[in-house]
Design brief:
heterodimer; A: 217 residues; mainly alpha; two-stranded antiparallel sheet; 10 helices; B: 117 residues; alpha/beta; Transcription Regulator spoIIAA; 4 helices; 30% strand
């Protein structure tokens, strides 16, 4: 069984093994933290409501990235998902590294270094399992968006976090995403944690916009 | 969390009371799915009475989606009614009102699922 965090990370791996440039964005960082929290929620370690994220158990899940997030949340005060996502977004590079390492251990991808211009090296993560897990995640998203039925909770959360993290455009054309915008808004992210991620992204964008305005004046 | 059922007007009504959190979600999901399967066999609609449901967490909320999805797949008319203020706020924030029929009271819910009191 693949975790939501792993699925979201796989969506950021391009066909040639490069990590999509969107994975370096704050939005992806926050979506990834949200995916870890959803995985912890599904595993019964935390539960979210509008007042805050409550720790139910500190027992490790065995998933390094999720356990890192659990450790930090358990050591902190009870606060909203939005607040935790904002605070933990800086940990995203570590969370991605841990998740990629877990995917390597599972034989889903491997790490390769490619040289270009004779000297510069770029790290890539070619997919090893014939792309099964990655294709399945993409197909689930497309099937949910193109059908008229209701999504499963997992599909709704994956869509919501993929949208939040800017990953839909990695495998769908912009016009296709625009055409499905109404359906995406209807069935994506029907979940309090995903809504917390969306709030965090809005709050973060406001802070950045404010900082830009201050720097202009 | 406490759950009771009644059947009348070709309608199965599930009365949910208390807190729907991670601890309660698994059992409630099983109950809801079984009720929908039984309603499908009997040609009943399913209503979820939330008048005494005080709390819904993220884990609990997913059960509503599982239920609505099961009802749609089984062609069972399904609606939720009498949300408390706290639960309504969770529905509003999460966007569930866009995919599930949420009515103010039982009469409205019965009308929505094509049954009359």
């Amino acid at each position: 069984m693949i975790s939501l965090t792993e699925e979201l990370t796989l969506l950021a791996v391009e066909d040639d093994g490069r990590i999509a440039y969107t994975a370096g964005s704050p939005n992806f960082a926050m979506a990834l933290v949200g995916a870890c929290i959803v995985d912890l929620n599904k595993a019964g370690r935390v539960d979210a409501d509008l007042q805050g994220l409550n720790v139910l158990s500190t027992e490790p899940t065995g998933l390094e990235a999720q356990d890192r997030v659990l450790e930090v949340i358990a050591a902190g005060p009870v606060q909203t998902t939005e607040r935790w996502v904002l605070e933990l977004q800086g940990d995203s590079p570590d969370l991605v590294r841990m998740t990629l390492a877990h995917l390597q251990r599972r034989g889903i991808l491997h790490q390769a270094e490619k040289r270009f211009l004779w000297a510069l090296r770029a790290r890539r993560y070619p997919i090893d399992d014939g792309g099964k897990e990655q294709k399945e995640a993409k197909l689930r998203i497309l099937a949910a968006l193109l059908s008229e039925g209701l999504p499963t909770p997992d599909d709704s959360m994956l869509i919501g976090l993929a949208v939040a993290g800017g990953l839909l455009e990695a495998f769908m054309s912009k016009s296709e995403v625009a055409r499905l915008a109404e359906r995406i808004a209807e069935i994506g992210g029907l979940d309090l944690v995903v809504r917390g991620v969306e709030s965090a992204i809005r709050a973060d964008a406001e802070v950045r916009a404010h900082a830009i305005m201050l720097s202009i004046h | 969390m406490n759950v009771t059922h009644d059947n009348d007007h070709k309608t199965t009504t599930i009365h949910a009371t208390g807190r729907l959190d991670f601890e309660a979600a698994g059992a409630f999901q099983k109950d809801l799915e079984a009720s929908i399967a039984a309603a499908a066999a009997a040609g009943n609609a399913v209503l979820l009475d939330c008048a005494t449901l005080d709390y819904v967490s993220s884990a609990g909320l997913r059960v509503f989606l599982v239920g609505a999805r099961a009802a749609k797949a089984a062609n069972v008319p399904f609606a939720v009614y009498a949300l408390t203020a706290a639960v309504k706020e969770v529905f509003d924030v999460s966007g569930f009102g866009r995919i599930i029929d949420v009515l103010a009271d039982r009469a409205g819910a019965l009308e929505k699922v094509g049954r009359s009191a």
